[in-house]
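ARCHIVE CARD
Drawer: 12
Card no.: 0347
Subject: one protein chain, sequence and derived structure
Cross-reference: see card 0346
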Amino acid sequence: MKIIKQGMSKAKIEKIKNAVKRFKCRTCECVFDADKTEYKSEEEYTYMRYYCKCPNCGDNAFELRMR
């Protein structure tokens, strides 16, 4: 196999995968941080979507992405 363009280093990939992420619940509007052991991910087309159970109401909350 021939690499055309080198991707990120393995250390940087692990840092991204294990990062604490901020979530916002659409139901109760609770905003909270969760670490890798508390949230899950799913691939949706060309990007990853992270979600976690809201500690306030129990519904699924999705990652709050800062712009």
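Annotation on reverse: The beta strands are 21-24, 31-34, 40-44, 47-53, 60-63. The chain has one helix and five strands.
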